[in-house]
Amino acid sequence: MTDCTYSHHIKWMREAIKVAESALEVPEVPVGCIYVHDGKIIGKGFNATNITLNGTRHSELVGYDMIRQTYGEKTKQIFRETDLYVTVEPCIMCASFLRQMGIRKVFFGCGNERFGGNGSILSINTDMPSRVDENIHIDTPYIAYPGILNREAIVLLRKFYIKENKKSPNANNKKHRRLDLQNFPKIEYSKYITRKQFTNLFGEENGWIYDNNEFMDFDDNNRITNVNTERDSKKRKLDS
Amino acid sequence: MTALDTATYHINYQKYTFYDEYKRIQPNIKTTQPQLTKFWSVSLDPKYTSEILRFIKQKFSADDYLKQIKRIKKVMDDSKHFHLEILICPVQHMESHVLIDMLKKWLTTPSDFELTLTTASVPLNKPYSKELCMSWSQLYWPLVWKGNPMVQEIRESYKNFKRGTVERYLKEACNLSNSSIASYPIATIIVDPIKDQVMASSVDKRSGEDPMIHSVMSCINQIADNERRRRKKLGDHKETNNYLCLNYDVYTTHEPCTMCAMALLHSRIGRLFFIKPSSVTGAIGENSGCKYMIHLSCTLNWKYEAFQYVGDRLQPSKLDSSLSV
């Protein structure tokens, strides 16, 4: 079976999920990322704010340090041809960092409802300053695709918070909380990208996923498996 | 707001300045827009009032940002019956099914009672006039008017403002930037205001190998590194407060970029002071860059105060306005 246009992105996100999983043992909030350049992982990291005592050590910055240790002076040049796969939407700080570094594209799992900088709270990746002058350099905007393995990213976060609650002596009312694998908040695609940007990547046939704010499901070949029941039932009606 | 006020306090309420030299960066009263946040609200018969109030008291009483918001709204339905709409918590804090389960366990409603949650948009910032308060109450959710919060806020801020100390550290940051041999004359100092002690200081160290090591980031890293070393040396592995910059003061020569402004928010600093505005890349000033005013942007989590020096005695070098610092 040949790959479709988007399947390699799903493959890379599975790698980012693996990185995030390793944070659970530390324990750190399981957010993980990988940077991919020319078909190779050149940097990866998970959130390290607890072990470093530094609230700014997000996975994106940890991965960046790895890249600059390899590439030195060439780091910025490499970034321009690099895509980031991160399990949770970059926060405002990281979104600004990525734009200043000139990242090519960003793919993320779930939205970040508190600090998201790629559409949830602010759109640092695409905003333009009010004072624009042709002589002034503005960092190039980048596209950030949401919802890639969204569910997997959320499940990891839930696993972490359940574990933390068990440690807390005051969390008696949360003691019996089970890992919820059924209910997920919907993702509002239009906060992050346009329909055109979505279908350019996932194909026009999947545009309905965007319209209905559905979670995307993928098979082992990283192809979308969502079935448009509404359309199918209409089709059946027409057939009969 | 009287002449006496101005003389005693050195506060200019029109320009938000202290001593005519320090401009407090805050939203403009006239253009204040409601910062709406979605909350879960539940609709109930008035006979459950005391039950639901006890529920809120026990489970959600810590949410003190709700002080200016009324918890309960009375609604008359088409058949002229009253019911109550009760505000529970921000949608992002809890998923609906978890909250419904909690409510069902708590309330003595009949077993076939259909409990539904709706979402309500609630302004979390304060309106600055009684008229605005009434209009937001009509448009969104009933609010409590407790007098002009801006005047109270500015006075509180002024009480903690020690002019001599602020000027001393800003001068120090200026000297650091002027004596720096680094390519960019930008300097930052982080101070523990209780001990009146410098906790970190750094000039801008960006290079081809690390273009992102702005002076604010360097200072935050320094503080974490020092504390890690200290804990290791002492074998101190107690799980104490890990917000190492909690309520610290940050003095910097140039208005920080979005990355640095947000890094300071993640680090939970108390106040930021800067001298030169960054008109294109700055993330604090009300007209800078994309007008983010990052220090006030995440209302549910943390915010910090920000001051711009608007006097003419302290002069760090001017920078290319497209440079992020």
TrEMBL record, chain A:
This is DEBR0S5_08592g1_1. GO terms for molecular function: metal ion binding; tRNA-specific adenosine-34 deaminase activity. GO terms for cellular component: cytoplasm; nucleus. PANTHER family: CYTOSINE DEAMINASE FAMILY MEMBER, TRNA-SPECIFIC ADENOSINE DEAMINASE 2. The keyword Hydrolase applies. Keywords: Hydrolase. Residues 7-122 form the CMP/dCMP-type deaminase domain. CDD domains: nucleoside_deaminase (cd01285). It comes from Dekkera bruxellensis (Brettanomyces custersii). InterPro entries: CMP_dCMP_dom, Cytidine_deaminase-like. Transmembrane segments: none annotated. GO terms for biological process: tRNA wobble adenosine to inosine editing.
Automatic annotation (TrEMBL), chain B:
Residues 164-287 form the CMP/dCMP-type deaminase domain. CDD domains: nucleoside_deaminase. Coiled coil: none annotated. GO terms for cellular component: cytoplasm; nucleus. One of its GO terms (biological process) is tRNA processing. Transmembrane segments: none annotated. This is DEBR0S2_18426g1_1. The gene is TAD3.
